[in-house]
Design goal:
six-stranded antiparallel beta sheet, 13 strands, 31% helix
Length: 237
């Protein structure tokens, strides 16, 4: 579980879906039994002391970017139906923990990692790196020349990243509950700007994972981060 300050007050907490029920029980112990209200993002818990907790469903469990009902998948990746309605904590946990097929796209200037995960398992993956020259201390014409070379190398690397996404992710687009991206937002946006990837871009969710330069281990860790439940905890005003 991790925590970070939230804009406008309070803090964001990331919880593994399997630990949500335990977290809610602890919330009730600390602040009193909460009133549970269904919301578009998931559930709102309002405790007797005024403390609130917004439980946000993970990508794909809320229907992803399309807003369509979330689709559960079995162990083979086949669609099995829609998780139970999220009206209460048990329903939320069912939706959050239901196995879903999720696409992953992690990109930074010189590296990309793509994969498809089903539940906690990474089914397919590919990592590609390409050299992008670092900044130089030289000035004048030399600095401009090196800057152009860096830009060209970065463009070539992101072009390769788009080709990789076309080969590995695009054929899976129709089966994905969501596409979760991570790394540098500008790099990700550049990759998904490729017109061929429009079906993938349509399944992209707002969550952007904060990851270092993509490597296989980073991609494996991104599966858990993509499945995490985000909770916005606010104390009484």
């Amino acid at each position: 579980m991790s925590s970070r300050p939230a804009a406008g007050g309070g803090r964001w907490i990331e919880v593994d879906p399997t630990r949500v029920a335990r977290w809610v029980a602890g919330f009730a112990d600390r602040h009193g039994p909460p009133v549970v209200s269904p919301q578009g993002y998931g559930l709102l818990l309002t405790a007797p002391d005024g403390t609130t907790a917004e439980l946000h469903l993970p990508p794909g469990a809320d229907g992803g970017a399309s807003g369509e009902p979330a689709r559960a998948h079995d162990a083979a990746g086949e669609v099995t139906g829609v998780p139970r309605r999220v009206d209460d904590v048990p329903g939320f946990v069912d939706a959050a923990t239901a196995p879903r097929r999720i696409g992953l796209l992690l990109a930074r200037k010189g590296a990309v990692a793509v994969g498809v995960a089903l539940g906690e398992k990474l089914l397919t993956s590919k990592v590609d790196t390409r050299y992008v020259q670092g900044r130089t201390a030289a000035g004048g014409w030399s600095q401009q020349r090196f800057a152009r070379r860096r830009d060209n190398q970065a463009k070539a690397a992101l072009g390769d990243a788009a080709e990789l996404a076309v080969r590995l992710l695009l054929p899976e687009a129709a089966t994905l509950a969501a596409l979760v991206c991570g790394g540098d937002r500008r790099a990700v946006d550049t990759v998904l700007a490729d017109r061929r990837l429009a079906p993938l871009a349509a399944r992209r969710v707002a969550r952007l994972l904060d990851v270092p330069e993509p490597r296989h281990a980073v991609l494996v860790g991104a599966v858990s981060a993509a499945r995490a439940v985000h909770i916005l905890l606010r104390d009484p005003a």
